[in-house]
Amino acid sequence: MQVSKESQEFLKNLRVYLLSSGKNEQEINDIVEELEDHLYEAEKNGKDVDDIIGQSPKDYMNQLADEMPLDLTGVLKFIPIIILGGFSFILLEDAIRGNLEYALLEIIGYPSVFLINLFLIGAAFKYLASTKLSTTKQWLILSIVGMVPTALFIGIYYLDHFIETPAFQLGTFGVASAVVVSISVFIGIAVWSKSWVTIIIPLLLFLPKVLIDMTRIQGDTKLIINSILPFLLVGIYLLIVSKKEQQT
Amino acid sequence: MSSSQILKGILEGCLLSIIGKGETYGYEMIEKLHASGFTMVKEGSIYPLLLRMKKEGLVATTQKKVPSGGPKRKYYSLTSKGEEELEEFKKRWSAISGSVDTLLGKDG
């Protein structure tokens, strides 16, 4: 069964819209499959997606979303995972740098940034899925959403220098346990989500640094390689993944 | 009440009636609606309604293989609550249409 490009686009957007509205995944699959079946039959009879959904896609998506309950447990389930994953990320990076001292401000601040970020990404995807925008505008919105957490992280970093909050320092044993805990969290999330992402991304980001530390490369070369290589690798990885997705 | 809300209420009654005549799926419902002259009904608009009717327990769904092969298709049938609702709708409708007919008849 193959529906037209426009229909596929609509179904894809509908899925993103409902997912970022916090609906149950099973119910989303249900309605998307049902509409795909309908679109297929309708297209056989010479109708197109605009004939089916009428009005604006956004209104139609909203009508469907209104009739679907919020999957609160499904949404809440993600929050500890995101916080845990995010924290492990920071912990692992700092452990490799050998700097494991956290002020209370950071311990509260970082998870808050993850939550704000999660909320923003959800809102942005919901908006993008339901509104027809030029590619430039889409990228503009995504870049702004992408910059917010960075800005907040920098904000926390500087605020930390101005405000004294109790600090916790981890010794050698602490660093070792932090590394073990972080790696277990990444593996745990990978198993839970049945996806390699949380193993591959940290690997690409952190492994080059560890390997370069073992070589004799020093000074500026080391700095440049360390700051560019990880992001280049992640970029290539994401490119490969998106190519694969398009093929299926 | 806006005109689209009135239409929605009527549409729900019609869907109950169509489903009541035997298990059916979305596209077939639309074909039957259009065949009865409901051409102003946008095809997609039945799905939010069907979602609500399922939530309210008026209809039940089952996934079945399409006879011609291919993916599964969702079939709707009435629950006993749905049958009661259909009877209620028929009563309401004959009262409304009777009154409207009487009124229009007087005018004409």
UniProtKB/TrEMBL annotation, chain A:
Gene3D superfamilies: c-terminal domain of poly(a) binding protein
InterPro entries named in the record: HAAS_TM (IPR012963)
Keyword hit for Translocase: no
TM spans (from-to): 74-92, 104-127, 139-158, 170-189, 195-212, 224-242
Pfam family, one: HAAS_TM
The organism of origin for this protein: Pontibacillus chungwhensis BH030062
Source taxon at top rank: Bacteria
Keyword check for 4Fe-4S: no
UniProt domain HAAS transmembrane region: residue ranges: 89-203
Protein's recorded name: HAAS transmembrane region domain-containing protein
Keywords for this protein: Membrane, Transmembrane, Transmembrane helix
From TrEMBL, chain B:
Xref: PANTHER family: DNA-BINDING PROTEIN YIZB-RELATED, PADR-FAMILY TRANSCRIPTIONAL REGULATOR
Signal peptide positions on this chain: none
Gene3D superfamilies named among the record's database cross-references: Winged helix-like DNA-binding domain superfamily/Winged helix DNA-binding domain
Organism: Pontibacillus chungwhensis BH030062
Pfam family, one: PadR
Protein name as it appears in the record: PadR family transcriptional regulator
Domain Transcription regulator PadR N-terminal, first and last residues per copy: 15-88
InterPro entries on file: Metal_resp_DNA-bind_regulator, Tscrpt_reg_PadR_N, WH-like_DNA-bd_sf, WH_DNA-bd_sf
